[in-house]
Design a protein that fits this description.
The complex is a heterodimer. Chain A is an alpha/beta fold. Chain A has six helices and 13 strands. The chains are: A alpha/beta, B alpha/beta. Chains A and B meet through helix 3, helix 4, strand 7, strand 8 and strand 9 of A and helix 3, helix 4, strand 7, strand 8 and strand 9 of B. Strand 12 of chain A pairs antiparallel with strand 9 of chain B, so a sheet runs across the interface. The complex binds flavin-adenine dinucleotide and adenosine monophosphate.
Chain lengths: 244, 325
């Protein structure tokens, strides 16, 4: 069983987000980066699935600054790692790099997170699957493997769906797919010497260009309503905000 | 050439988000001086299909047949890409629902088009085609230009208003050709609670946190939601503890929502929680601690014990609803 886990390196969930004065770029100084929380779920699942004799490779498209996060993934239990040496330009770029890698190094399963904490697109897993011509189950809450078929539970509008897919496939891990694994001392020690290969990117057509960022307007000061006067709350919201 | 919108139906009925994306497509069609085609897949009655013309569709492509009863993402993506090619669509738009998110990237790759995913507003079209999206889990917006000739766009629900623009529309049947790869996923079971409002699309959301003390106290949260016609949500520790299902968990690691009204009961307002709810248009916070950080991110605050305030709110909501009728 060969499993590839796609990992992204994202700002810590408590990080304050700032941009350069021209709003063109994210300022990473002073920000702690972490393994994307959903990717950690995907990785934990992969490590469980491979426990009976399999190999887990983690792959990241990024520059050298992502290596501490890659080492963290190795400490959690991945066997080896690949870094495709290029900044993640957009999801088509990232997905193409990963799909090209998989064409040369076939795997039984590709696990991703359901979305990254920086782009929030849920696009990379689907694009990888389409580029490889295989199924993708996004928002997967559980994954059960039997011979060459997997059964997954996934979120849909107002409920859930149970699907069967043949191997190989891509899944986007949602909460519940696995328990978060905490690296132990042995994992941390061995992560330093596990293989991490760095490979060059392939050329990819440019379809989108990042323009700029800005931040949501801050809300006006909160209006306090006395607990004894909540009767009028909905009329107040209707009259002042016109949303109900 | 055209603007092609895929209008998703749920058991033969279009939801509000379908009319939102048709209105959105109509605005692009108007700006670019192109006709608006709307694609529907699956069994939908003619009367329901014609509702699409209320929002500006001049042509309605319908795909029916047995292969399109239980829809996998791959089947739908192939159908949309073929319809877009047949209609020579320059712009292909759909809702970024759970299924839309799994479809739009495939369509973009099939059409060799750039993807503008999860947009939250009408693109700027005067100089290029620049879309606005959420980034950094609700802490920022990103603007992104789509350079390709053909553009695929997915839009989050509740991001664009309904605009009526009644047209005379022709219904045209369309038959996509499916390949083996389009049918490799087998849908074994679909479980939907039909009476429940789906969280990502809900206009009103009542959410509760650890302040509710235990799952046995959720009756009043559900009642308030029921009276308002709202969806229910919760904080992460609540779903971690199994008090509520994971599908209700909102925040950075849960679902991100942008309803018109978000009522938070007994939630402290941690940064990871705010990340998923701060784009709500109006936020009401109920907390017994006047120092709770959530008050800083709220429009209306009530300091008080949830067990006293929520029953009063239920009454207030009933009176409000009665006054509306
Ligand atoms: C990587 C990471 C990701 C995370 N992602 C998320 C996420 O997506 N979503 C999320 O919600 N959290 C997330 N968290 C957790 C987050 O940091 C907070 O711990 C969590 O939001 C707190 O939940 P809470 O407000 O329900 O509980 P608490 O923080 O315990 O707050 C309970 C509140 O209830 C109030 N209260 C108590 N009794 C009453 C009463 N009788 N009446 C009224 N008020 C009362 C208290 O004053 C308090 O403010 C994440 C954390 C990490 C580390
Ligand atoms: N730069 C990257 N390198 C490797 N995998 C990535 C990268 N960016 C995103 N992914 C994977 O794709 C998932 C969804 O990301 P996104 O499409 O950005 O929301 C993430 O949870 C990762 O599993």
């Amino acid at each position: 069983m060969k499993i590839l886990v796609c990992i992204s390196n994202v700002p810590d969930t408590t990080a304050k987000i700032n941009f350069t004065p021209d709003n063109k770029e994210f300022v990473s100084a002073g920000v702690t980066f972490i393994l994307n929380p959903y990717d950690e779920i995907a990785l934990s699942k992969a490590v469980d699935l491979a426990a009976g004799g399999g190999n887990v490779t983690v792959i990241n498209v990024g520059d050298a600054s992502t290596e501490p996060t890659i080492r963290k993934a190795l400490a959690i239990g991945a066997n080896d790692a690949v870094r495709i040496n290029a900044p993640a330009r957009d999801s088509f770029f990232v997905a193409t790099q990963i799909a090209e890698y998989v064409k040369k190094n076939p795997v039984d399963m590709i696990l991703c997170g359901r979305e990254s904490a920086d782009h929030n697109g849920s696009t990379v897993p689907v694009m990888i699957a389409e580029l490889l011509g295989i199924p993708c189950v996004l928002f997967a809450k559980s994954l059960l493997l039997e011979a060459n078929t997997a059964t997954l539970d996934c979120e849909i509008e107002g409920g859930k769906q149970v699907v069967n897919v043949p191997l190989p496939f891509v899944a986007g891990a949602s909460e519940g797919m696995a328990e978060w694994k905490i690296p132990n001392m042995r994992g941390i020690m061995s992560a330093r010497t596990k293989p991490l290969s760095v490979i060059d990117p392939v050329d990819v057509a440019v379809h989108t260009r990042h323009h700029s960022f800005d931040k949501p307007a801050t809300r006006s000061a909160v209006k306090m309503v006395s607990a004894d006067a909540v009767e009028q709350l909905f009329e107040l919201i209707r009259d002042e905000k016109k949303v109900i | 050439m055209s603007v092609l919108v895929y209008a998703e139906n749920l058991q033969g009925k279009f939801k509000k988000s379908a009319f939102e994306i048709v209105s959105f497509g109509a605005a692009i069609a108007h700006e670019k001086n192109l006709p608006l085609t709307v694609l529907s897949i699956g069994q939908v009655a003619e009367e329901e299909l014609l509702r699409l013309a209320t929002y500006g569709a001049v042509k309605i492509m319908k795909v029916e047949g047995e292969a399109f009863h239980a829809l996998s993402d791959q089947t739908v993506a192939t159908a949309i890409a073929q319809a877009a090619a047949a209609d020579a669509a320059q712009y292909v738009a759909m809702t970024a629902s759970f299924s839309g998110k799994a479809i739009a990237p495939r369509v973009a790759i099939k059409l060799k088009a750039g993807l503008a995913d999860n947009v939250i507003d009408l693109p700027k079209m005067s100089d290029g085609f620049v879309v606005k999206k959420n980034a950094y889990s609700g802490k920022a917006y990103a603007y992104c230009e789509v350079l390709s000739d053909v553009k695929v766009i997915s839009m989050l629900p509740n991001s664009y208003k309904l605009v009526e623009d009644q047209k005379q529309a022709a219904i045209v049947p369309f038959s996509p050709v499916l390949g083996a790869a389009d049918t490799s996923v087998t849908i074994r079971e679909t479980i939907r609670s039909a009476d429940k409002v789906s969280l990502p699309e809900a206009e009103l959301v009542v959410s509760a946190g650890r302040g509710m003390k235990g799952p046995e106290n959720w009756g009043m949260i559900e009642e308030l939601a029921d009276v308002l016609g709202a969806a229910t949500a919760c904080s992460k520790p609540v779903s971690d503890a199994g008090w509520r299902p994971h599908s209700e968990h909102v925040g950075q690691t849960g679902i991100a929502i942008s309803p018109n009204l978000y009522i938070a009961v007994g939630i402290s307002g941690a940064i990871q929680h705010l990340a998923g709810v701060s784009s709500s248009k109006v936020i009401v916070v109920i907390n017994k601690d006047p120092e709770a950080p959530f008050f800083k991110a709220a429009d209306y605050g009530i300091v008080g014990d949830a067990f006293e305030v929520v029953p009063r709110l239920i009454n207030a909501a009933k009176n409000f609803k009665a006054g509306q009728n």
